[in-house]
Amino acid sequence: MNIPLLDLKAQYATIKDEISKAIGEVLESQEFILGPKVDECEKAIAAYSQCSYGIGVSSGSDALLACLMAENIGPGDEVITTPYTFFATVGAISRIGATPVFIDIDPATYNIDATQIAAKITKKTRAIIPVHLFGQMADMDTIMNLAEKHCLVVIEDAAQAIGAEYKARRAGSIGQYGCFSFFPSKNLGAVGDAGMIVTNDAPRAEKLKVLRGHGAKPKYYHRVVGGNFRLDAVHAAVVSAKLPHLDSWTAGRQRNAKRYDQLFRKAGLSIGLPAVTTDRHIFNQYVIRSTSRDELQGFLKAKGVGSEVYYPVPMHLQGCFAYLGVKAGAFPESERAAKESLAIPVYPELNDAQAQYVVDCISGFVAQTTHVPAELSRA
Ligand SMILES: Cc1ncc(COP(=O)(O)O)c(C=O)c1O
Prior knowledge:
Layout: H1 8-29, H2 36-48, E1 53-57, H3 60-70, E2 78-81, H4 87-95, E3 99-102, E4 125-129, H5 140-150, E5 153-157, E6 165-166, E7 169-170, E8 177-181, E9 195-199, H6 202-211, H7 233-267, E10 286-289, H8 293-302, H9 332-340, E11 341-344, H10 352-368
Parallel strand pairs: 2-3, 2-4, 4-5, 5-8
Antiparallel strand pairs: 1-9, 6-7, 8-9, 10-11
Helix pairs in contact: 1-7, 2-7, 3-4, 3-6, 7-10
Residues 59-61, 85-86, 88-89, 131, 157, 159-160, 181, 183, 193, 195 line the site of pyridoxal-5'-phosphate.
């Protein structure tokens, strides 16, 4: 059996006509930059995320960057975040000249351990960027309480978490800003790079709209330096066409996650399973843990099962951040997750037989290796 990590062609087959129509309308209009399709998409994503405003941008990476720019964060400022994330989170902080300050993760959820944040807040701290990793939101109550107490801005990196909920509140709606990525492999993907910022704050929304167009307002008059962070109409049209399907795709991912949990438990396997600690985990990834992770990945590949390591090197150990002087061992849980975690196929179209095959393969691997069990997550 051949089971990829993600089967975008299977999804496309079910919505081909809607996507063609959406793209066709953009082509007919010849309005490619911002315009009505982008407005429509912004309104729809903001409403879906329980927010008042959506600002379409060129990518999730630029969404983060634009929010930091909107807060005038720069050299001499510190921004607190997790080292166990995709590069863009920390890259944005570094690009505006601020200093990333890392907090280790909670090993159960892979999200920032909010209980450790207070100890790292200094006079220079300006913002916290929690990352809702793999589709589950971070501990937002603790984060927001600290942020309010110390007058910090919270930028939710919700690139992997559109529609996720924490105490019935949607990803992106709790902090001052929420940043989404519509990278094609995300749960809601465009046909290339695209993203969006959501906020409930009118002045911040207005500032972001100016920043995404080189800081011009009116056209050709620049009081601030922004960038070209605009969302293309073709991506907006595709995202709007896909949005009505998102909840059923999420339900498919959740069904598959539950099925895996049951199958793994039934098989009595000593692997770490994902812990669900919030109301709505949208399973952008279903991540297991194994102390023999690399061997397991090779074994699965030979059996035709796709998997991926998110992420093999935590940010404090990346070469480009060596200047921060953070040594190996500083964030043990992030470093352990980087060695043990493995994402397996959980895409909505994965069927029973395929899920069973994946679990059978992993059982086969465990049976044939002298496997040291990874500590079971606090599920
Ligand atoms: C956690 C996280 N932050 C930021 C990004 C950046 O998004 P994009 O790829 O759209 O620039 C991604 C996407 O890959 C991500 O997973």
